[in-house]
Amino acid sequence: MLTKATPKPPRWQRSNYSPLTRQIDVFSAAAKLLCDLLCDKTLGQDSPSHRNSRAQWLVEKLLDLGPTFIKIGQSLSTRADLIPLEYVQALSQLQDRVPPFSGQDAIAVIESELGNSIYALYRDFNPQPLASASLGQVHKARLHTGEDVVVKVQRPGIEKLFNLDFEVLHRLVRFANRYLPGFKKYDMEAIYQEFFELLYQEIDYIHEGKNADRFRENFDKYPRIFVPKVYWKYTTRKVLTLEYLPGIKIDDRETMETCGINTNEVIQLGICCYLKQLLEDGFFQSDPHPGNMAVTQDGSIIFYDFGTMAEVKSIAKDQMIKTFFAILRKDTDEVVNTLTYMGLIEPVSDMKPVKRLVAFILDKFRDKPIDIKEFEKLGSEIYLMFEQQPFRLPPQMTFILKSLTTLDGIARALNPEYNLLAASQPFVKSLTVSKGQGKAIRELARQAGEFIKQKWQQPSGTEIILRRLESRIEEGELEIRVRSLGSDRTLKRIHLAIKSLIYACLTGFTLLAGTVLLLSPQTKWAIVAFSFSGFWFFILLYSLIQLGIKERLDKFIDK
Known about the structure:
Keywords: Kinase, Membrane, Transferase, Transmembrane, Transmembrane helix. The protein has 21 helices and 11 strands. It is an alpha+beta fold and about 550 residues long. It has 4 domains: about 10-100, no CATH class; about 100-245, no CATH class; about 315-455, no CATH class; about 485-559. The strands form 3 sheets. Strands 1, 2, 3, 4 and 6 form a 5-stranded antiparallel sheet that branches. A hairpin with a 5-residue loop joins strand 9 (about 295) and strand 10 (about 300-305).
């Protein structure tokens, strides 16, 4: 009789997995990545396709290392200020592809935590999980009172693994700060401390339950936002029992359309909901991926996961309010001032390139989703500005960017041409008639009123263009640039030819050295020299092929 082979548990989940083995696994992965990056830099292999292959390798390695590193990858996917675009795109697709643990293990955790047998606690309990992630999994159950619930169970041994990874990564951060000076500017210690603080909060289900209660209170008067009720009698640090609220996955456009749900209304509700969280409540879900949100049959939104909530301090909230309405008004100076005040832009002696970039973004992307490829239109001086890093992202602002970019991705899945300005209109209109108390509410209402007034008094399109032209002439920003494409191509060919000449010299030198050593008693060094000669010959061959292809392309273009 044939039986299906039971898949082996991941390496990090095995009982005989020692701390020393874990440290070797982490350090070897980090060393390989560092060596590969240094090799790429030395050989000039910096094409987008090559960076993409490196990024895909990194994703697979993070999955292999387990929960801690999956979470690190998901956090890094928002850090466009730290890592190249190809890595951001690859890591943004990183999902919790971790196999579920057995239902018997889940029952053992529940019984140990709640101090009773599973059927004394629940009338029914399905040992097959509804969903599984790196930190835990969810089972459907029914209470003896008849309510359907979901039981979230922490993965066995996860806290022990986090403690081990905490120490291993701290050693890695200290090593990088000591021996790799380039890492110091990223303040890795602060990022590391904040990451693990939030990670430990995420595996504390009592903390998550309190977050759910607070979130539900904030939306108590909003009938189209659903938050599951927490059953505290059946909740501990490792077990969380919640009301069962099924729905359609929020990015499942096809199912929504089949059910007659207006996806544009769902986008509008989601955008307004997040604007309220960020600008009014200062308490928001920092990881709104499709698995954490769903849609009911009438188009309402259900929120599920509250382990990754974040808060916005009152002073930052005021500045975010000003930034939001400055974006709606396309007020470049105000946007730059508020972002600088919040620490998102580092002041430099000449802020004109920064203002040009912000003005470009406001002009091109205020009314539609951001397309990274469009940034190519900014020109080489903007890329130079990025290399000098006038933009920075403090750790506490990471979660705001993460939630907004994730929400943007969901909105694109429902409607690729969605309009942020149109989607936020109901929120803006509700503020103009708001009589709520508190500094934040008053500031929101004031900004909303000024925005509506500005829209009524908006000058004509011709007048706006003339004002912009006059402003750029006065500030010396209007430039006429002439660039010779032919000269650029020639310089690139010369650069490749010089590199080929260097590789040819290295090949010849090592070949000659090997020949001389072959005639001496030191024959083993001759083999080493011949090996190096072969290595440099292959690099020379690759460089010559590149040069030949470039010359042919240039001739074809010049025809």
